[in-house]
Batch of 2 targets.
Target 1
Amino acid sequence: MTGNIPILKIGRTLLVSIQVELSDAVAESLQNDVLSAIERSDAKGLVVDISGFDTVDTYVARILADMAKMARLMGADTVISGMRPEVAATLVRMGYTMDEVRFALNLDEALALLGHVLAK
Amino acid sequence: MHTRYMRILKFDELELASRRAFFCVSDADLQRLAGLRPFAERHTKEVVDAFYELLLGHPETAKFFPDELAVKHVKKLQSEYFLQLFEGRCDLQYVENRLRVGAAHERIGLSPQWYLGAYRRYLEVLRGCLFADYGPAEAVAHLESITRLVFFDMSVAIDTYIAANVDTIGRHQLAIRELSTPVIRVHERILLMPLVGTIDSMRANQIMDTLLLRVVEEQARHVIVDIAGVPVVDTKVADSLIKTTAAVRMLGTQVIVTGISAPIARTLVQLGVDVSTMHTRARLQEGIELALEMSGKTIVDRARVGS
């Protein structure tokens, strides 16, 4: 159960906006839920917005990075958007750089990066 | 100035009590010193004259007193300073007074060694006067009380120099921090951070934090870090560049490092630094062009467009 973290679908993109601090357990179940959602849908992209995080530990970061890699295996490209400066600084200082993941400044750019065009 | 020094040194009632205990400055000593006031007044001229004889006899210290008038002026101040030893007090007010005098000496560049040497002369002359005026046992007891307060004074004087240095270093660091990490917006959503001077670990952190904040503020898509002004690029600098690049990338922004001269390129390869994750260019101009190109823009010659 991810509780209050909804997984939204816009066109062929899944959107997860995490506005709460992720505990290890919630992060793990989020990973499961997202992967099942990809399996069920025809999603080609996944955007994870983490602008609500002001801290993150390497374990949660790893879960997110792994989720991106797993999604890729299932045919969905992942972009993480909205990382805050202090979170990026902390991760790098802990030696974790999430090399395999793509990033965007905000939701708009994340969708643009995935080539997602919203209906006008 | 001296009140700031009091703050830097955390000189409060607690510190005063602890220091007085360490230098054995008791209330009995202070009482005795107050009682010695007439003696001190009798000998002020003698002590102060001997003091300046020492200072004027050394070229390094004599240069602080250019003429007769200056000597006369400082002798008067010195007399006051000397007599304050015999006021029978050793409270925060006293310490602040001592700090003020110390700060004045620090400001004109009179270093601690001269200060300490001068104190020794004080004690030497006072000893002579005490043994001339009192019986041996009494003179020894008086000298002990004076010595305690003089050493207390010396500790405060040394602290003044330390506080002044701490203060100076603090102000310099602040100035350096402000000067050392400018971030310039060169084009819509393209930032430039020109780095000049040596990069130590503190500055490396500062660079990263400033850059990350500015990237988000400006929602910059590209950041150019120009290292042409960094004199030495070693593993530490390379490491900080890689970390900064990685952190900026996690925000969704790309870093272009420019100013990679031939020696820097050689060093990076010889150090085995993996710079494959970075976009690099030799010159800043090329960096700007690359950033524009990556944002789908280009600089065109107007004459050519017209033709």
Note: The interface with chain B takes residues 79-81, 83-89, 91-93, 97-99, 103-106, 109-110 of chain A (CB under 8 Å).
Target 2
Amino acid sequence: MIMEKIAELFIILILVSVVLNVSSPFLKFAIKLYSFQSLMLAFYIFMGAIHFNSINLYGSFAITVIFKVILIPYFLFKTLKRVKMDKEIDMYIGIPEAVVFAGSLTLLSNLIAQKIIKIGLTFGSFVFTIALATFLIGAMLMITRKTLFSQIIGFLTIDNAIFLAGNSITHGMPLLVELGVLFDLFVSILILSILILNLRRNVAS
Amino acid sequence: MYELILILPAVALIISIFADVLWMSYLQLVISVLIFSTVITIAMTFSNITVFLGSFFFIDYINLVILITVSTLEMFVAFYSFGYVRTEIASGISKRKFKFYYFWKNLFVLSMMISIVSNNLGIYWTGLEATTLATALLVSFNRTKESFEATWKYVIMCSVGIAIGLFAIVVLYFTTSQVYGESLQSLSFVSIMRASSELDKNFLMLAFILALVGFGTKVGFAPMHNWLPDAHSQGPSPVSALLSGVLLNTALLGILRFYQINWAAGIYYPRYFLIGFGFLTIMVSALSIIKQTDYKRLFAFSSMENMGIIALGFGIGGIAIIGSLLQIFFHALNKGLLFLSSGNVLAVTHERKIEKIKNLSNNFPITSLVLLFGVMGISGMPPFAMFLGEIYIMTGVFRSNILLGFLVFILLIFIFIGLFGKVLKMYTGNMDNAERMNELQSEKVTHRGINDNKRKKTEGSVHPFMIYVPLILLLVSSLLLFYVPPQFLNIVKSASYEFQGRIIF
Amino acid sequence: MNYNAEHLALGCIQFFIIVLLAPFFAGFIHKLKQRARGQKGINILQFYINFNKLLKKEVVLSKDATLISSLAPYIVFVSYLLILLMLPAFYRYSLLGVSSDVILIAYSLALATFFMTLYAMDQGSAFGGLGASREWFLTVLSEPSLIFIFISLAIYTKQGRITDIFYFIQNGAENAFLSGAHSSSVSIAIPFLLFISLFIVSISENARIPIDNPETHLELTMFHEANILEASGKHLGIYEYGSYLKLTIFLTIMSLILFPYMAVNIYQVPLALTTYFIKMIILCGLIAGVEIVNPKMRVFRAPNVLSVSFILSLIAMILSIRGF
């Protein structure tokens, strides 16, 4: 009972961190928020692991922490340092509008989720709403922001949303598959970082 | 035997880390031929669906068709690369760069093979994402600003798309785990097909739609196609050939798998989604082809159009499925030859714009003929094999809906006009005097090395392999119209039965 | 019936305690801030002394001032007092608990702001108009969140009065966490969201540092101060005391959301009072911490922060509408 409520809190914190991400133009803060968001996701998985006492989920918790909380933010920080950007400069819409838009996306995803959900999901029925809202807001981040770094953050947010949804409707994918997925994600972040560095260099020269 | 499909590319991958580039190009030939012959042997002796390597991988009729396609085109590309590497090194690109070229190309082929023969949908996903990552650095091989931007778009869009595909797999896993429990078996395609009647239909439908949108991004279906022309036109030509010819099919395979599951579970209306997306893709690409100014982008749009036709065929069902399966193979060969021969033009002239290239028939006698006939082939003209696939699909379309058939037919005519008119412009046409003067002057200004000055802008400056490989491809593609090996036809027929759920797993 | 008499007596005590403690909390925050900056700090009771001193001074009004100017300070003060009469800070049956509708509270706050800005403009000074427009700029942005917070509390608990709302939450929490009974109507997430949202709103409404800096009198940075720049003597004292009351109102609501514990009878009052005091001290520390850590932000970045608060309260409302 209490665990369910705490898990809810973690999920809400994921959404809060995404909304904060929309409201802030600072890239360093965005990476920190991403790390925090992944940590909350990991804790959510951990709660599930305790609840169902499943080894699979413990493993999933561990690799989520390793990849999403530590490795990816570390490399993003490194890239950010080399790129020497600290602030999102180009946005198609202003911050307050974007935040309000994020709120309406949350409303929308609430409506959609209520239509879709028929079967009881793992923890509370609103995980799916939050996952959908996180997904949409992540997509919005990718669309409304021009800086490549913000696009990476948006992509990672989308990815977290899918992980959240995946963990809410199943008890986690098989560990082997999850490992592959996270490894792919990690490599794609590396490649995107390389591309950012190269693009900056090309623009500069 | 079956394991060799995965082992050989892995061996090539490992060797490519250590070996010298020129050595590697020989080895690559050997390994590609070996892969090809392995696949052919499998195809000759194939009798029923086989699971191997601890049930993580399997071969059935559908992925066998794609496997044959990949190995054939890969072999031709290996031969072409043999010449390509030498030509580019001669023109002053460092050997180290080409070492990476072989490394990434082998990684690409390996991950594509893993995707194609995977029984486990999770592994399929991992392999498909790995192909994106492996090709990312190949697309940006030229290290220009445009190529980096194209790569950026490619990686970001495909990653997001495939992430949605992951969610499709998660939803499917949720459904199947109610039958098999939470284990690897719930993701195994063969097991899912066996239990298909017990699955929740709503969720299967949802999974299909998510997969269509997600993997459809990688196939290049119409609203999600923005990355495709950029990425396919920026890479080195052999890579473009592989990307256009076979990678799109690999991504399509994912959609087909979900379609098969739905079909087996008794959900028949996903076909309308395939028809819709296919038609939309054909329409968008037809409209885009007409206003293209870059010939590699032109061919990229043409592959998009062909994927649309293939999806349309799969959606229509019946005889069109056979057409689509044939089309997968023939399109790969034909698109391969187009990209490879246009690669010759690019390698010599370093020019991507159509209007800047004229009088190919003089300077590139063989290549330009191959290009011209290739374009005829790709639009489904009779002396080439794609006629066969396209006629099957169009027959199916006309049978099911005459109006749709007419619309598609008109769009195909548009595409033919667009493609052929543009390539004809490149083939003929003399430069007028003013332009020639300009050319001479600019050459004086921009000559950079001795190499550049010496080399004439003709076919003679490229390695003979680069000229004859597309020619052989053209001949093969023409030959296949008149003689399709009966074993291959059998496989295609069985694949179409399997696709319609008439083969029990 | 000593039942009602007990309510009346304890309600009165609660009201007087909060009203009397208000300057103390403000002073405590001020002292904390000064200590953190390495200054010696004011006397913690300094605000009482200030108020006393100001009451003795003469009121100077502009010659253009109308009746509004002489009434406004009292209206502002009384509307804050009204809200304090309703709030169940540590005793469940507050004096006006029966009519403590959440909408009434929200609009009493707005009424106070309205009269304060009227006063500012009525004085006819240039700063008054400036301050009034800035005040409304912030209030317009934070009012929706405030209303959403109250409405989502009301929907979440299905109660209309603020006393009932928090009593409901308290009961639910007791049931869920102490006796372990399955209560599907309790959530951690909603109060948490509301708390963050209300925290942001209270920082902006009470002219605290990231949004406003009440300690300076620079025309560029003034929000709240510009409104009462012309006030003097008794009026200024009342305004100052009103702002302490407002701070206390917000802190009290936050403390109730954070950990609702209200006494139902006289025996629980000492414990409840202690809890209340501790909660308030913690919240004061929190606000002081925020004020120390953050620099004053540009005026036009205030909408960013306030929109976040709005969205959080919106999400809370969505969640409470859905039910659990």
Note: Residues 145-180 of chain B form the longest helix (36 residues).
